[in-house]
Amino acid sequence: DGKFVYYTRNNISKINNRKDNKGIQNLQLFRSNIDSLGHWVSEEILPFNSKYYSVGHPSISSDGKTLYFVSDMPGGFGGADLYKVPISEKGILGKIENLGSDFNTEGQEMFPWVNHRGELFFSSNGHIGLGGLDVFLMTLDRNGTFYKLQNVGIPVNSQNDDFAFT
Predict the structure, then answer these.
(1) Using one digit for the tens of pLDDT, what is the confidence trace for 43-83?
(2) 110 CB contacts (<8 Å, ≥6 apart)?
């Protein structure tokens, strides 16, 4: 609806030490309101961020009701996993949900993007592909449930890393 913007940023602060116990500054998700002049105002850090793991690469469903993102938070399947969280009409975030083993592997799942039909594109180096990160598509059934994983193939994918599909 153009009222909010979600974005990834590292958690640098001049005041606080925001590094984890290994000295790493992880990525975090933020949301800002967009005022009538198009300025980003009232920045807020999302509640599931942590200095101990990264959270990033937001994508909002076309109806504005779901935020998809990636994280290497504990309890996942491997490196970075795909997650979703419902967004209420008032912008309140619900309970996060790992998208499960149909999406996530021991590798890296990253850069989700949802088209107007609700189909989810993402990059992975854990599913069988052409090499490195490949772009995959998860299609929906009539009930809105993801059911079919597809490698989008050539010419989108190559032997190198292919990602950030928009």
Answers:
(1) 999 999 998 899 999 999 989 999 999 999 999 999 999 99
(2) 57, 70, 80, 122, 123, 124, 133, 163
Reported pTM: 0.89
Give which of 141, 140, 137 is closest to 165, Cα–Cα. 137
More confident site: 12 or 52: 52
- Using CA atoms, how far apart are residues 70 and 132, in angstroms rounded to an integer? 18
Q: What is the largest CA-CA distance in the chain?
A: 50
Strand boundaries in 11-127, DSSP class E = 27-34, 40-45, 55-60, 66-71, 81-86, 97-98, 109-114, 120-124
Kindly state the tokens that stand for 2: 């153009």
Note the pLDDT of residue 10.
81
Q: For strand 120-124 and strand 109-114, is the pairing parallel, antiparallel, or unpaired?
A: antiparallel
Q: Cα torsion at 112, 65, 95, 5 (round to 10°)? A: 60
Instruction: With CA atoms as reference, report the closest residue to 62 among 114, 18, 134.
Output: 114
Half-sphere exposure of 110 (CA within 13 A, CB side): 20
Pick from 2-6, 68-72, 118-122 the range whose average pLDDT is largest. Answer: 68-72
